[in-house]
């Protein structure tokens, strides 16, 4: 039997972030897909094999969990270059979208083929077993959608076939899950704040505090209320609003005003958060300021996010601090800080390292799934010893 490999995957609305094995490899893939009705043409296989698989991810996905089975997709960077690419729509449920599963399977298949034994694939087929830690927005977990999502993954074989993908063309990966744990995103953020990779407590001062964690994603916002080291399910709230809609508005307005078409929301995020030339684009070769567009739209969104914070804090008045996490927090950081300074002056904290905020969920799922495996192995050992002593 194939040994099960740890996978901790955050299918974020902006990108998939994944950690594998003993943290020896990780993947970042923009969450964009494009349906292909036929195989894309190959310019020349020698030329193709010199390219990066991550930039040329072309796959067919077969899974009983998908509504559209056996469909062909361009994924990630390759999808952003097409005219029919899709990103998750505001208002959609992450747990019910084919796109979530396509991105998850693509990440796992890429990990599988990149392992050393990929070359020894029997008849170009790799059998891979994973123990998966992943998560869903709080509102979906509260509605019980995690149960259906988990059962879709368990008990079936999900196949990814690499089509016109450098180095991996023609290889099929059969994915099976030995175990799937689906965590609420707010709780995962808390775990990441207080524990290191070996589940040792690193922030003792946070352990017994009542804290809020506002996780701003692409399509949704979760505010977790942590007390007595647990998420208070009754107090925690999920909101059907993230940054995607605002990023789409910025993209549309830049096109209308400057005639520049940005490939995806990822490009808009880059313009807003990069270190140099922030809020600038190139228009016909000239560096052009788009501050007027980004400021107006993002300030409007920041006001709504701030209103959420205020409402939750009023109902949980003994909270000591609110941590802002997620890709959306990186985008709105300066606007929320400015509002807070002018208005209530809550004790709020952002992560200066935007990377830390973006990878927080994937890192937390890794800690949680590694802990689950450790406990399972300990329990199995105990039962084995008990059985031996009873002989």
Characterise the protein shown here.
It is a single chain. The strands form 3 sheets. A 9-stranded mixed sheet has the order 3-2-1-7-9-8-5-6-4, with helices on both faces. Strands 10, 11, 12, 13, 16 and 17 form a 6-stranded mixed sheet that branches. The chain has a two-stranded antiparallel ribbon with strand order 14-15. It has 391 residues and is an alpha+beta fold. The protein is globular and about 75 Å long. The mean pLDDT is 87. α6 (185-194) crosses α12, α8 packs antiparallel against α10 and α10 (291-315) packs across α11. The two termini are 27 Å apart. It has 3 domains: 4-183, 2-Layer Sandwich (Nucleotidyltransferase, domain 5), CATH 3.30.420.40; 188-242 and 301-359, Nucleotidyltransferase, domain 5; 244-294, no CATH class. The protein has 12 helices and 17 strands.
- Could you say how many structural domains there are in total? 3
Any guess at the CATH architecture of the largest domain? Answer: 2-Layer Sandwich
Sheet with most strands: 9 strands, mixed
Count of helical segments? 12
What is the spatial order of strands in the main beta sheet? Answer: 3-2-1-7-9-8-5-6-4
Per the CATH scheme, the topology name of the largest domain is Nucleotidyltransferase, domain 5
Q: From the alpha carbons, calculate the radius of gyration and give it in angstroms.
A: 22 Å
Q: Give the number of DSSP strands.
A: 17
Runs with pLDDT <50, length 5+?
A: none
Q: H/E series, N to C?
A: EEEEHEEHHEHHEEHHEEEEHHEEHEHEH
Instruction: Provide the structure class.
Output: alpha+beta
Q: Work out the strand percent.
A: 25-35%
CATH superfamily of the largest domain: ATPase, nucleotide binding domain
* CATH uppermost class of the largest domain: Alpha Beta
Span of the ends, CA to CA? 27 Å
Shape: globular
What is the overall pLDDT average?
87
- The portion of residues assigned to helices is 25-40%
Domain Actin-like protein N-terminal: 8-187
Domain Alp7A-like C-terminal: 211-349
Protein name: ParM/StbA family protein
Pfam family, one: Alp7A_like_C
